[in-house]
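Problem 12. The chain below contains 186 residues. Write out its predicted structure in token notation.
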Amino acid sequence: MDIIAALEAFQPWNEQETRDRAELLRRLRSGEELYGRENPAAHLTASAWVVTPDRSQVLLAYHNLYSSWAWLGGHADGDRDLLAVAQREVREESGLTAVTPVTADIYSVEILAVHGHEKRGVYIPSHLHLNVTFLLEADPAAPLHCKPDENSRVAWFSLDDAVSASSEPWMQARIYQKLNAKLQKL
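Solution.
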């Protein structure tokens, strides 16, 4: 996936996506190293809004770092195929083996602030996640399991319950509600 071409083709949903898309393109075109974690200020991540085939439920994991139910995803870590990153992260964080893109197109973009924290005994300074989100689909009857070093539970939620399950007001109001609203327009 050529991320610059994919972002250029992406049609923003709202002002947040318009501004974040512009900043993502600016940073990518600047030559700044964004695919790995070597850049302490910002790096690329890929997330997934994983839905059931009938689009009535969303898969969330209880992320230990944020003490909140949240979408699944993670760092690009050098991989330039962000759709593949999103799919890999869903498999790792949920135990699902079959995760299918509803479309290979970008579903949403976000620039997210991450507060300084410790991970595996190492301090990680505050930074930005330059995030690209994909809409994926999975069977709600498939077995799930958590990834204990990152999350402690994985479960399906109704669309409304997925928003209210999060304890992060910004994610509820600006991200998860937006992802659900976009889903209703498909």
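Discussion. The chain has one domain: 3-184. Students who got a different answer should revisit the alignment rule from Section 12.3.
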